[in-house]
Amino acid sequence: MGLRAGLRAGPPEGLRERKKQLTREALVRASLELFIAQGYERTTVDEIAEAVEVSQRTFFRYFAGKEEVALASQSRIEAHVKTLMRARPPEERPFEAMRNAVLAGWDSLGEAIGESVPVSLHMRSYLLIESTPALIAAHLRRSMELEEEMAALIAEREGLDASDPRPRLAVAAFSGVMKVAGRLWSQGDDLSVRALRDLMVASLDSFGPAMAADWRSPAP
Amino acid sequence: MGLRAGLRAGPPEGLRERKKQLTREALVRASLELFIAQGYERTTVDEIAEAVEVSQRTFFRYFAGKEEVALASQSRIEAHVKTLMRARPPEERPFEAMRNAVLAGWDSLGEAIGESVPVSLHMRSYLLIESTPALIAAHLRRSMELEEEMAALIAEREGLDASDPRPRLAVAAFSGVMKVAGRLWSQGDDLSVRALRDLMVASLDSFGPAMAADWRSPAP
DNA sequence: CAGGCTAATGTCAGCCACTGACAGTTGACA
DNA sequence: TGTCAACTGTCAGTGGCTGACATTAGCCTG
Predict the structure, then answer these.
(1) pLDDT 10s digits, B140-150
(2) Does the domain formed by A15-69 have CATH 3.90.1170.50?
(3) CB spacing of B165 vs A133 below 8 angstroms
(4) How far apart are CA B199 and CA B185, in angstroms?
(5) Separation of CA A83 and C1' C25 in angstroms?
(6) Which residues contact A143 (CB under 8 A, 6 or more apart)?
(7) Strand D nucleotides with an atom less than 7 Å from a protein beta carbon
(8) Superfamily of B15-66 according to CATH
(9) What local confidence, expressed as pLDDT, does residue A104 receive?
(10) Nearest to B193 by CA among B76, B102, B83
(11) Which CATH number is A71-212 given?
């Protein structure tokens, strides 16, 4: 131990492991670039494999399907947010904790997705997802799983029984708001991370009013 | 005109149109029965086509894909709810109108899905969807489209600009609650329509408290 | 009611995502 | 260094889905 110098998180286990990591990252990068350049459907797995110089079979040993590689960098963020959520101080109320975890997640985007996928590529891949029906579907399913984990986390934080529906309701509302923000962002023209973050904050802030107020009376 | 007697809604245009309708219904029925009996993935399109005695190619002329036929009876309900939503009196607030439209939709399930698909078959198909990852994904995507239409409807009702995010936020929250209710239902053991309806009402009723209350203090 | 028009269907060939089986290659480690 | 296990490539096959073209069958007009 302690032999290696200048590395941060996970020390590469050996040559084999390092090569695998490299192949994986190359596949993600090549996939995203091809998807963005020519569209998701119009890109075949053979093309991706060829670009990375591996066989098609190898591609499928790294990813369960074409969808998975398209959502790969998105998954990194979700994992990151989950970690941050677990680290939230227990005094924070559920909504507050989720809000802080998500915002902190986007503020540290770079660390979340690693060096192999530049931030701008990641953002364009997000855009790709939002504009490709097959990927929208896959993404929503993954989000549902995330929601369930978040609800379980919150139930634990608050000391509630697993059957209590309130955490699930709160999480459903929260991620509904996030989805609206994501959609607004993808339809706007400022594709920066900052713009997305601002939209998230704005959507969260107008959620309360949106639920309570009488929209027909002139705004307060 | 006026020659035909004793028919209700859409007068069958002729023999050709009637046969198409019949084929379509037979495909939906056979699909659902096969899916339920042996699972969605383990059922091939060839099997379905064979059961109805049409070619595989014909199947794909009626449905864009295997997913679509699995969601067919679900789609009927969504269309029905949309209609009911449009008929809601304008005095109702958005949440109220959505709630009433959805509940009324389930109360008139029979009329919505027609005779070709019995209610119990429909409910089991709903269960199938909730337990099949590929169908969950497809269903969530369709729900998203429904949400957008609902938001547009509400924006119009309330006389709001299309860019106002509040209708979208309200709809997102509402359908988040509905999804939770659907999930609770599919995981319970009472698979009746009544049970689903009750869960929807219960979820809607506990939504307010779930958002506002301090869950840690003993319930009021 | 014959015959042409057109919509609906069947047949065939082919693409692409994905998988199992088997063989070859290459790090790991005694 | 040689053995083992992990990783990769090749091949053959299944199933969803599509375009092109031929065939059938309701429809409509004279």
Answers:
(1) 999 999 999 99
(2) no
(3) no
(4) 7
(5) 39
(6) A175, A179
(7) 6-11, 15-20, 26-28
(8) Homeodomain-like (1.10.10.60)
(9) 97
(10) B102
(11) 1.10.357.10
